[in-house]
């Protein structure tokens, strides 16, 4: 036997609430955090040798563990003593080999993210900034977005990325080191991207149905 609330079956009321909630969730924004030094839960790591969960290395002379990048901290041989700014709170320095001051060279770090099913007309980049030792450039899908000459590793440098450079599929963000002196090489980057999903027709229908049921319940409640 089903319970009736204000003349409406309890199952119908619960359906209305669930559909309304489903509709709201379908329009939630997706945050993508590009910060170097994150663990798999998105926490910024400060300790040297901590595995970076997102940035993958390539073109390195002596990687510590091929494809992986690691946090570089003052206890590591690769740390730029007296010239780099401290790790945290929004990112940390990373390199393919934090324990070899001479082993990183002109490396490339890559971060990939998939925007399939998301609305590229509703995207926004926030607080993009970076630094590198020695020099290098940032690219998104082959477009150069920022570059730094040697000697700019003492602070962050802001940059921007045009939305038109995004793809509604897998996107590739890279940082490439250049002009290496092969002593204390690393990179630091932070910033986020927010993007909303493209609602499917079924989502609209379910949302409207849920709102309709909720409206009906409200009208019946007023009559009671």
Topology:
Blueprint (H helix, E strand, L loop, with lengths): L3 E2 L2 E2 H17 L3 E4 L22 E3 L11 E2 L22 E2 L12 E7 L3 E16 L1 E6 L2 E6 L8 E2 L11 E9 L7 E12 L3 H23 L1
Antiparallel strand pairs: 1-2, 3-13, 4-7, 5-6, 7-12, 8-11, 8-13, 9-10, 9-12
Helix pairs in contact: 1-2
Explained architecture:
The chain is α+β, with helices and mostly antiparallel strands and 224 residues long. It folds into 2 domains: 4-26 and 200-223; 30-197, Jelly Rolls, CATH 2.60.120. It contains 2 helices and 13 strands, in the order E-E-H-E-E-E-E-E-E-E-E-E-E-E-H. It has a 5-stranded antiparallel sheet, with no helix packed on it. A 4-stranded antiparallel sheet has the order 3-13-8-11, with no helix packed on it. It is elongated and about 80 Å long. Residues 19-26 have low confidence and may be disordered.
Assigned CATH architecture of the largest domain: Sandwich
Question: How many domains make up the coordinates?
Answer: 2
Task: Report the biggest beta sheet as strand number plus sense, adding barrel if it closes.
Answer: 5 strands, antiparallel
| Beta strands, count | 13
Beta-strand percentage? 25-35%
State the low-pLDDT regions, or none: 19-26
What is the highest CATH level, the class of the largest domain? Mainly Beta
Give the integer mean of the pLDDT values.
86
For the termini, the CA-CA separation is 22 Å
Estimated helix fraction = 10-25%
> What is the string of SSEs from the N terminus onward?
EEHEEEEEEEEEEEH
What strand line-up does the widest sheet have?
Answer: 4-7-12-9-10
Instruction: Give the overall form.
Output: elongated
Q: Kindly report the oligomeric state of this protein.
A: single chain
Rg computed from alpha carbons, rounded to a whole number of angstroms: 24 Å
